[in-house]
User: Which sequence fits this backbone?
């Protein structure tokens, strides 16, 4: 086979490749040459260091004197304003269907989002009907009501003021059935959310007879299920959502059209809290969250910069291309 | 949290919560027996709750109670017997020999689930989102007096281009073509590249959202530990 080499660079490259091949073949022949494992990447101390820095940032507000907390003043995004306007436009004794669709792991964030709205609704004497497509949802709903009742100092009495209708089986199919014909029954009181007549007067026949549908969720798929299955049946009833930060980006496209108002994450929740008049002047939790977020962003930027520097300084591969 | 105001159950719950939180945080150093214990307890509790809710709110009141207490009513018999038979057939899936008996029930489940999902996706997402994407370009909602009309139209146009480019990126009916060999459809490759960029930005936003939620959970746990420590140190 005739090989034509055009210039010296290609010849040098070919020679280096041949030398590399020869080394590999020689290493295979040499039984004593054992490839040494590279040094262990020191990931444990890095992980601990990052966590210590994050936790220190989160703990700092608890040791700062009040009045020096770095909580940023809440801004009022359009979604928060729309949420507040919808809540305040509800009639007296409004009936609100509340979908509690978050896992216990996210209760810290979502209870913080939901409490001010719940308190505002309870002070307006709204009638609350709680449902969930999650098995832990009924317990979460119960915790929400208890915490809000304790904060408000006025225990909501079941079943006139609040009904926990519990678990809706069947996921999307269950929601479709709920939207069309109700049929969900409270095991304790026997009250039914049903399309049939003969209900106790305070409760309402179907989803479209409520004054508001409020979905609280950490999962974008669950939020989307409510929009797709129940949304078309609402017939003008506003649909509002309180969402975790992880669900927000994927549900945001529905805002303004199928979802009339949306509050996403702790920051917007704090803004709504302030708008509704429940904001604490020295909110340590919000300050802690803001500091931890800022610290995480700074650490990410530093690490990205360091990573780019290290990659630029490392020499290109000397073996085979 | 004031320890004096807690009854025994609340105090036990607070102690368990505090202990399990520390067990979970011990994963920071390495996987260990305490972390695994906490995870196992969590899985067991979640499974127990799911089983209790499934029995107390679904199987007994909706399926068995109407059949046992009022079987004479024709509606109860029909509405209860068919689901009961399907549930029993579904149990056949635990054994390879009996799995054929579970197929009708599985087919029914899958069929209903797929129909609900597809119907909801078309009527609840695709059509409204397409309508919104078009109207945001042709007839956008102007926020109010003093707002920038060009910005409003521009953002609507950008949304339309993003939507189209992402849909083009996911086309599979043509093989990727080198623009230098077939310049006629290089615009398709370019549009697909824009779609890939939009997807990358979206995934970045989603990741940021997940990270913020995790941070909120961490802050919540730190607050819980701080309050608990305070309650012990300053009762």
Assistant:
């Amino acid at each position: 086979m005739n090989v034509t080499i055009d210039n010296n660079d290609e010849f040098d490259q070919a020679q280096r490749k041949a030398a590399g091949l020869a080394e590999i073949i020689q290493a295979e022949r040499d039984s004593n040459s054992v490839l040494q494992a590279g040094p262990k990447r020191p990931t444990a101390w890095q992980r601990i260091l990052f966590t210590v820095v994050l936790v220190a940032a989160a703990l700092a507000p608890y040791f700062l004197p009040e009045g020096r907390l770095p909580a940023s003043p809440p801004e009022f995004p359009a979604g928060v304003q729309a949420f507040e306007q919808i809540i305040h436009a509800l009639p007296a004794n409004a009936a609100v269907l509340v979908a509690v669709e978050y896992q216990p792991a996210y209760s810290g964030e979502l209870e913080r989002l939901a409490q001010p709205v719940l308190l505002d609704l309870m002070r307006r004497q709204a009638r609350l009907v709680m449902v969930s497509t999650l098995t832990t949802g009924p317990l979460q709903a119960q915790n929400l009501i208890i915490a809000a009742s304790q904060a408000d100092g006025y225990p909501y009495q079941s079943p006139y003021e609040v009904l926990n209708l519990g678990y809706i089986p069947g996921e999307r199919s269950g929601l479709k059935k709920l939207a069309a014909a109700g049929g969900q029954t409270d095991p304790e009181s026997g009250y039914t959310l049903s399309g049939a007549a003969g209900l106790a007067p305070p409760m309402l026949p179907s989803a479209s007879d409520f004054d508001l549908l409020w979905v609280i969720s950490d999962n974008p798929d669950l939020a989307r299920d409510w929009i797709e299955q129940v949304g078309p049946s609402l017939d003008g009833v506003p649909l509002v959502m309180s969402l975790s930060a992880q669900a927000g980006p994927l549900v945001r496209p529905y805002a303004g059209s199928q979802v009339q108002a949306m509050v996403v994450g702790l920051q917007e929740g704090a803004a709504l809290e302030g708008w509704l008049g429940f904001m604490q002047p020295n909110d340590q939790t919000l300050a802690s969250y803001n500091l931890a977020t800022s610290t995480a962003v700074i650490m990410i930027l530093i690490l990205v910069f360091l990573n780019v520097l290290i990659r630029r300084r490392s020499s290109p591969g000397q073996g085979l291309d | 949290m004031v320890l004096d105001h807690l009854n025994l159950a609340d105090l036990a719950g607070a102690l368990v919560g505090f202990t399990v939180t520390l067990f979970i945080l011990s994963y920071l150093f390495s996987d260990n027996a305490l972390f695994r214990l906490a995870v196992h307890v969590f899985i067991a509790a979640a499974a127990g709750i799911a089983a209790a809710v499934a029995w107390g709110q679904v199987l007994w009141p909706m399926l068995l109670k109407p059949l046992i207490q009022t079987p004479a009513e024709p509606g109860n018999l029909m509405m209860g017997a068919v689901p009961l038979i399907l549930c029993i057939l579904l149990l056949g899936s635990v054994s390879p020999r009996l799995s054929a008996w579970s197929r009708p029930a599985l087919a029914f489940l899958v069929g209903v689930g797929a129909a609900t999902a597809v119907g909801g996706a078309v009527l609840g997402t695709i059509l409204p989102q397409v309508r919104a994407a078009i109207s945001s370009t042709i007839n956008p909602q102007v926020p109010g007096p003093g707002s920038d009309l060009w910005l409003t139209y521009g953002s609507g146009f950008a949304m339309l281009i993003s939507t189209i480019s992402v849909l083009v990126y996911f086309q599979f009916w043509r093989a990727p073509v080198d623009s230098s060999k077939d310049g006629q459809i290089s615009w398709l490759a370019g549009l697909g590249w824009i779609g890939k960029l939009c997807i990358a930005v979206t995934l970045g936003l989603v990741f940021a959202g997940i990270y913020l939620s995790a941070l909120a959970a961490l802050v919540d746990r730190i607050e819980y530990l701080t309050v608990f420590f305070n309650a012990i140190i300053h009762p």
